[in-house]
């Protein structure tokens, strides 16, 4: 796909779905601005594509000032932002009875506030442009609550509500919104699970259903970005075929 006319910010680009999307869009010649905490991993992606235009930023999405600095730098360099992809997330699942309040707070901060920080930083610019596209990685867990995943699901239900509200508020400003809801995908996400039983459950589940590869989810993001100006893909759910 030719995306050479698109300036795309990807938050949470250092591994998994975000990294695969960065690689795919680099091949599509998009101008890329990549953010995550692990800047070395972002620079590894940049170095794979010496002919592409790729900026990398060390950023924690829970810190609005850092997110805004990336957005401001992008506008200063390229004059506009076509897409922000809010992809950063963690999934430390555990039964509620374990009372892992620190993990709950981290999930709320990264999975919800991280998305809101991205939205808050780009929206004034996109409204001014009267164009733009906000994409967020949600989950099948944003549709169905799984056992021992109540808080993670809660964050993903919230994000879906926020994105649908954004869609309704910003249609008149010609701003597209896309919710990407993957099923089980082989990434480093399972490393964020600290409960040993839950980690094994997630890994076994992925294996048993022949889970998705990150590049397969990236192709859904590419599809949403590549649509005509008058067509907005509101949500894409991509499941492993064997995930019920
Ligand atoms: P990974 O763990 O491979 O990727 C997570 C990404 O989020 C990394 O780039 C990580 O970067 C970034 N991130 C986490 N915390 C922060 C933070 N505070 N600030 C900036 N970046 C952060 O997992 P996935 O690729 O699977 O996850 C991507 C998204 O997909 C998440 O929102 C996840 O909930 C969602 N998802 C994943 C599914 C799966 O089965 N894998 C299924 C459904 C949805 P760094 O650590 O360098 O900061």
UniProtKB/TrEMBL annotation:
InterPro entries: NAD(P)-bd_dom_sf (IPR036291), Sc_DH/Rdtase_CS (IPR020904), SDR_fam (IPR002347). Its EC number is 1.-.-.-. It is an enzyme of class 1 (oxidoreductase). Keywords: Oxidoreductase. GO terms for molecular function: oxidoreductase activity. The keyword Oxidoreductase applies. It comes from the Bacteria. Belongs to the short-chain dehydrogenases/reductases (SDR) family. This is SDR family oxidoreductase. The lineage of its organism: Bacteria, Bacillati, Bacillota, Bacilli, Lactobacillales.
């Amino acid at each position: 796909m030719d995306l050479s006319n698109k300036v795309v910010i990807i938050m949470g680009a250092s591994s998994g779905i975000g990294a695969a999307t960065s690689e795919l869009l680099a091949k599509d010649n998009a101008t890329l601005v990549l953010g995550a905490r692990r800047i070395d991993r972002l620079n590894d992606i940049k170095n794979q594509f010496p002919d592409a235009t790729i900026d990398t930023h060390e950023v924690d999405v829970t810190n609005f000032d850092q997110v805004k600095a990336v957005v401001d730098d992008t506008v200063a360099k390229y004059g506009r932002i076509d897409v922000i992809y809010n992809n950063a997330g963690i999934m430390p699942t555990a039964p509620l009875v374990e009372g892992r309040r620190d993990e709950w707070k981290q999930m709320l901060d990264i999975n919800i506030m991280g998305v809101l920080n991205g939205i808050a930083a780009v929206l004034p610019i996109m409204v001014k442009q009267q164009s733009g596209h906000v994409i967020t990685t949600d989950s099948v867990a944003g549709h169905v609550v799984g056992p021992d995943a109540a808080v993670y699901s809660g964050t993903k239900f919230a994000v879906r509500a926020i994105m649908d509200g954004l869609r309704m508020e910003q249609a008149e400003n010609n701003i597209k919104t896309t919710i990407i809801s993957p099923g089980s995908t082989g990434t480093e996400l399972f490393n964020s699970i600290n409960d040993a039983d839950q980690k094994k459950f997630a890994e076994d589940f992925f294996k048993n259903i022949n889970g998705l590869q990150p590049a397969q989810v990236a192709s859904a993001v590419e599809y949403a970005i590549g649509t005509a100006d008058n067509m907005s893909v509101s949500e894409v759910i991509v499941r492993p075929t064997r995930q019920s």
